[in-house]
Amino acid sequence: MKIKLLVLFTLLCILISACGPGQTFGPTYTPTFTLTATSTITPLPTITPTSTSTLTPTPMPTNCAVEKIRFVYPVNGQTIDYVGSWLFMVRPISCSQNYLWSFYQNDTLIFQQESNNEFGVAPYSKDWNKFAAGYIKVSVQYKQNDGTLSNPTTISLFLQN
């Protein structure tokens, strides 16, 4: 009888050890999930934004006090090398956005460009090639915050070949 119990106990241990963790004796059932679509759409609430700014805008002057543009370089009447780079600078105006640079030769507008308070023309550039040796006039106006232009300040220069 002891042998029968030993054999029965051994078989039971083998059977139990053959099962994986969480398994029991008998068939294993695996649940199957099915998706079903619903056609019910719930509308979302409409959100209306409201503007409640806590920042106070800094007022910008619509017109500056009239400030005269002053050239830093070159100076009126200066002779500059025709073949070199031409550099221009005016003192910054506190309420200006940009400056309109205008270049004339023989009382004809050669070109105009908006820039900051410094401007340069490189030798052999497309703008440089529009000039010949001789007298030129350089006129500068500043653009105010409201978009209007100041009165121009003009200097005369001599391009020496």
UniProtKB/TrEMBL annotation:
PROSITE patterns for the chain: PROKAR_LIPOPROTEIN
Protein name as it appears in the record: Proteinase inhibitor I42 chagasin domain-containing protein
Source organism: bioreactor metagenome
Native organism taxonomy: unclassified sequences, metagenomes, ecological metagenomes
